[in-house]
Structure formats: structure tokens, C-alpha cells
Amino acid sequence: MDAKDIDYYSLGFEYIETKTMFVSDYNDGKWDEGKLVPFGKFEISPAACVLNYGQGIFEGMKALRTKNGERVLFRPRENAKRFNDSASRMLMPNYDVSKFVDAVKDVVRANEEYMPPYDSAGALYLRPLMIGNGPIVGVRPAKSYKFIIFAIPVGPYFPEGFKGIDLEITKKYTRAAPGGTGATKTCCNYAGSMLAAKEAKERGFAQVIFLDAVHTEFIEEVGAANFFAVINGTLATPKITGTILPGITRKSILELASKKMGIKIEERDISYKELFENSCSEAFCVGTAAVITPIKSIALEDKKRIFSEGEPGEITRKIYELLVGIQRLDID
């Protein structure tokens, strides 16, 4: 799509084809130098490991436009490191962190005309991904891999934007189990969450809250986002135990709340029952795509807890303003 034909002030979180992508191939035990190529299709064997056994990983990043027109990335090395953590878990080759960041910057520069303006609240979303494209019949890792980075202009992940969303807790489905790949950003994790989300949306909810697979009591994630709640004045989030994604936005919020705002933080098991008590005053979900999205209400079967009529809570709003201000260089 031609960049000049896009309405950057009405963007959702949908696929829009841009101009250029980065591609690098791994063969004979090493990566090539990689290069920018026109965005487009590529050939793949029907026996490719990613198609048969799901050997694929990805990241989500955003390039933002500042008030004075600069292009900025938020903690890209953290994405590169997590990408390699995912690769190691899926028996895939690591990619040099500095080269990863350089390639991301190259893709941003090559697609700069697609970057939404500062006052649109949009971003250029970047999708680094790696697939086992080598043909394999037995269950074992591929011998060749493809690393790709493409970009699309996006608006808010949830149509509500920075307004509260309604969520449903599911006890029917779980996202990940101990010892599995819950902390890995692998394609497989997300395909398995789609049915739960679809059913929740059919009942009028924006997304689903997953509980732990062992006790079906403790909060894990909101669809593909990390969860936070303000309980007795403390900012609490589920602890990293190998079943939830170690979110970069999650990590940043914990640091900002503790060091910049003086808010007490806790990483711990959070029972869904706590969300229905008066001690829980606010809740929100976070991620690269979701940024910080307030939670308006949470439901489980015939129980419902309403936190607001849609407006964010005080702590949620302050954290959002600080995080977004830092990301767009409005705040040092």
C-alpha cells in the first residue's frame, strides 16, 4: 500500500503492506550478512520444520515518532536478548544482539514514510521472526533457518485505546503449563490461545484472562499481555515462573513504579479471587502492542467486578503517562 494513501489517524492493529523487509539465512552453521529486500513472498518447502512442528519464534517492537520528528526505539536490545532466549528454548540458532538491533534500525529507516505522526498516537510496528525453514520429517530441529524483520503502521491494539476494557476469566482453557514454552515467544503459544479469545469476544468481552494450569486459580496473562493490579495500594503482577512471557513493558513498569514513582511493587501469585475484593482498586494489562490498557471490569461465570465506567484509575493513568512520555522522549 502506498504510504500517502494511509489515514494514520484511524489506524487499528491490522496488516498493511509496507515497502521493505530484512532477510538473513542460516546455513551450514552460520548466518549470512542479511540484506534489505522488497517486501514480498518467499518459497518454503512443505516439509519445513516450522510448518510441521512449529519451530518458529518472533518479537514485537515499535518505532515511534517524537514531537520534534525523531525516530525512536524502546529498549531494542531487550527484545534481541529475549529473541535469543526463545531461540535457545526452541533449539534454534541465536542472532547477534548488535546485528539484530542494526537490522531493526535499517528496516525503520527503509520504511520511514509509513511511520505514523507523533500526534496520531500510532507507531511503526516491527515484527522480527525466525523460522526453521529446512525440510524435516522426523521430530528434530531444522538445519536451515530464515530471519525476517518487517514493519507495519498500527494504531491501538484494543479499539478502545486508553479506555477500560471488559475481560473474562477462563477456567476452561489454560495458556501454558510448568516445564513448557509459556515464557517463550513461539508461534505455537499464540495459536492455542485463539479459541479462548474468540469465545470470550462472542460473549462481549475484549479478551480473556488465563489462570495457571496447576490450580486454575492464579492469574497468568491477559490474552497476549501481562497483567497488573493495585491491591492494598501495592502494584502487583504475576511472578515469572516459566509459564508467562517476561514482558519488556512489564519489566519497565516495575522499574518506573518503584524507582520513579515510589510505589511498592510485588511479583507474586495473584488469586483471581483477590480481584473481586475491595482491596483491589485498579487493574490493567501491558505489552508492546497493548502499551498500558486499563481494565474496566472482570467477569467469571455469574460474578462481575467493575473497576470503573471506562476511565483509567489514578495509578494506571500516572504510569501510562510516564511510560509513554519516556518512550516518545517527552520525559527524560
UniProtKB/TrEMBL annotation:
Record's SUPFAM superfamilies? D-aminoacid aminotransferase-like PLP-dependent enzymes
Q: Span of the secretion signal?
A: none
Has keyword Heme? no
Q: Which GO terms describe its molecular function?
A: branched-chain-amino-acid transaminase activity
Q: Which cofactor does it need?
A: pyridoxal 5'-phosphate
InterPro entries cross-referenced by the UniProt entry: Aminotrans_IV, Aminotrans_IV_CS, Aminotransferase-like, B_amino_transII, BCAT-like_C, BCAT-like_N, BCAT_family
Q: Which key words are in the record?
A: Aminotransferase, Pyridoxal phosphate, Transferase
The cross-references to Pfam families, in alphabetical order and at most eight, read: Aminotran_4
Lipoprotein keyword on record:
no
Q: Which GO terms describe its biological process?
A: branched-chain amino acid metabolic process
Q: Which PANTHER family match?
A: AMINO ACID AMINOTRANSFERASE, BRANCHED-CHAIN-AMINO-ACID AMINOTRANSFERASE 3, CHLOROPLASTIC-RELATED
Family (UniProt):
Belongs to the class-IV pyridoxal-phosphate-dependent aminotransferase family.
State what protein this is by name.
Branched-chain-amino-acid transaminase
Q: Which organism is it from?
A: marine sediment metagenome
